[in-house]
Design a protein that fits this description.
This protein is an alpha/beta fold. About 35% of the residues lie in helices and about 25% in strands.
C-alpha cells in the first residue's frame, strides 16, 4: 500500500470567528495536525486541499480573504502540494488525480471539513476512482443542517455520514490509530 494524506478545506472560515463556523473545528483541526505531523515525519506524500468559492454571492471561502486561507494548525510547509478547488469533490476540476497517480498512490488517508459535504464527496469519488481510503473521524468537523421543518444537530450529521462511508467507501478510524498505522 502506498498512502497519501489528503487534508480537505481546513480553512479559517470554519473556525470560531469565521463566516461558516463548524462545530468542533478546533478539535478536528488539532487532530488533523497530528496526522500531518506523522506523515511529515515519515516523509509520506500529502496534499492540502483549499476551497475557493466562485459562486456569485458566496458568503465564505471568498478568494483573497483571510477566511479562505488554510488554518495555521495545518498550514502547508514550503514545497508541500496545495490543490485549489471550486466544488465539494476535491478531484473535480483539479489536478489531484494526476498528482496521486503520478506518485503511484493507491491509498488515501482523509481528514477535513465539512464531513457531510467535501469530505463525503471526495471520499466517495476517491473510491470510485479506485483508491482505498481511511477516514480520520476525529479529524473532521461539520455543522447542523435542516430539511423542511426538521433540524439535524451537527453531531448527528457527523455520525450519520461517517456511518454511511464506513465499510465500502472507507475504513473510518481515529487519528491515533491512523497515525500509528501509516507513520510506524
Amino acid at each position: 500500500m502506498k498512502p497519501a494524506l489528503i487534508v480537505i478545506d481546513i480553512q479559517n472560515d470554519y473556525f470560531p470567528g469565521g463566516k461558516m463556523e463548524l462545530e468542533g473545528s478546533a478539535q478536528a483541526g488539532a487532530q488533523a495536525a497530528k496526522l500531518l505531523d506523522a506523515f511529515r515525519k515519515k516523509g509520506l506524500p500529502l496534499v492540502h486541499v483549499q476551497h475557493l468559492s466562485t459562486r456569485p454571492g458566496a458568503g465564505f471561502f471568498v478568494p483573497d480573504t483571510e477566511g479562505a486561507n488554510i488554518h495555521s494548525c495545518v498550514a502547508p510547509l514550503s514545497g508541500e502540494t496545495v490543490v485549489q478547488k471550486n466544488f465539494p469533490n476535491s478531484f473535480r476540476g483539479t489536478p489531484l488525480l494526476e498528482i496521486l497517480r503520478g506518485s503511484d498512490i493507491d491509498h488515501l488517508v482523509i481528514a477535513g471539513m465539512m464531513t457531510h459535504m467535501c469530505v463525503d464527496a471526495t471520499t466517495r469519488a476517491a473510491f470510485d476512482l479506485g483508491f482505498s481510503c481511511s477516514l480520520a473521524h476525529d479529524a473532521c468537523a461539520t455543522r447542523a443542517v435542516a430539511f423542511g421543518d426538521q433540524s439535524v444537530p451537527a453531531a448527528q450529521v457527523h455520525v450519520a455520514f461517517l456511518a454511511a462511508l464506513n465499510g465500502l467507501y472507507a475504513k473510518v478510524q481515529s487519528t491515533a490509530t491512523l497515525a500509528g498505522e501509516f507513520a510506524a
